[in-house]
Amino acid sequence: MHELLSWLSEHYVLLLTWLYWSVDVVLRIVGVIVVPRRRRPGSAVAWLFAIMLLPVVGFPLYLMLGKAELPRKRREKQKIVNRLMRVRAQSLPDSELDEDVPSWLQSAVRLNRELGAFPLTGHNSADFEIDYQTSLDRMAADIRTATSDVHVLFYTMGLDDVTRNFFDALAEVADRGVHVRVLYDHLGSVTHWPVYRAMRRHLDAHGIEHFPMMPVKPFSDGAFQRPDLRNHRKLLIVDGRIGWMGSQNIIAPHYDKRANIRRGLRWQETMVRFGGPIVSEMNLLFATDWFYESGQSLDRATVVNTAPDATGSYECQLVPSGPGFVLENNLLLFNQLFYSAQERIVAVSPYFVPDESMFSALVTAARRGVDVELFVSEIGDQFLVYHAQRSYYTALLEAGVRIQLYAAPGILHAKHVSIDDSVTVIGSSNMDIRSFLLDMESSMMIGGTDFMVKMHEVEDVYRSRSRELTLEEWRGRPALTRLLDNTCRLASAVV
């Protein structure tokens, strides 16, 4: 025994080296076998690159972040949620599209119903709001009219000087007996700690029920859960008669971050205020998330109501998506619409990192003569995503896509698409791999000539604040910048 210990002490460097390289080789071999299974080629290549570059770091990261799915217990709960949603959605009225709408739009409606269970509903009203403070104040005014229920669900929420009126409205109606329920994404809100803590204290002080969505407790459901699986939806429903939806979070337009304030950054959002039968669909989506986080099932009368005002002229359909669904509902809808477009596509997204199928759909549309216009921000707030999305610009410009850069220091955070003069999709979903695979999102497909006129007016406002990027200008950027963009593109595929 003494001789063995003596030999080990003399040769431990050799043994550790041999052990390291043995583990290195094994991890590389296992990576090649395991990683490509049921995974997009681009994602598989990115993960394999990380593992081959440094296996002892890359492979553990893959084990933690390589599966875009919920733990088993959460998946079982999600099945209950989806079943509940489908059963209650049967109570919602079906609407028929006009005979003169294109057949591809009818196909999109059928696709959405199959993916997310929600029907197309008619006789809805909808109005845009693109001013940040005004939208908060209008939502607060609607909250103050509540008589029974207020349902709030936002990715990021915090009590600060900008949002105080919103939270005061919640407190006022709660104090007079209205049932207020609040959901906020845990990671999306807790990272803004001072205003997050102030919000929670405010809600508690007025007896308002609230829950963090997708709380970061990696092993709470019996298996490791990726911390970056998030609920990214933004919804406000008042008495089942007024619904708000779009891209805006309940926080100051600079997100209370010193770096953003120092740079003068301000987020530009687009919100839509709905009335009519569609509000019951929004309420039902909230109810499923409420059950998911609280375990409380809201009764049918609270969730699905007969709309008091059904005089609107817009047809609407809600499309939920996220890791709880089998397919990427938002991606499939976008691709269906891009391939169907005949004349015009206008896409607005703050984070544009498409998968291969969406990129091909946009390039193909431009090549076949469709006028394709993409709005993105001139500057970025997220280093990796900002540089990754820039790596797509050359191919898009060469195909004929017009890229509008929203002027700094604004961050165009709005998320919407319009196709021809037929339909708009607006909501919380970015056009990036994260929104397709990892985030719970909500999108609304809206048809109606008058609404398309309003949509184009919003696009005109953003166009007036943007400048068009030319292929000549883009080709002249520094070589080092190109290298950085392409490297970030590869890293962004690791999902």
Automatic annotation (TrEMBL):
Pfam families: PLDc_2, PLDc_N. Coiled coil: none annotated. It is found in: Cell membrane. Keywords: Cell membrane, Lipid biosynthesis, Lipid metabolism, Membrane, Phospholipid biosynthesis, Phospholipid metabolism, Repeat, Transferase, Transmembrane, Transmembrane helix. Its EC number is 2.7.8.-. One of its GO terms (biological process) is cardiolipin biosynthetic process. InterPro entries: Cardiolipin_synthase, CLS_N, PLD-like_dom, PLipase_D/transphosphatidylase. The chain crosses the membrane at residues 12-34, 46-65. One of its GO terms (cellular component) is plasma membrane. Residues 227-254, 408-435 form the PLD phosphodiesterase domain. It is a multi-pass membrane protein. PROSITE patterns: PLD. It is an enzyme of class 2 (transferase). GO terms for molecular function: cardiolipin synthase activity. NCBIfam families: bac_cardiolipin (TIGR04265). This is Cardiolipin synthase.
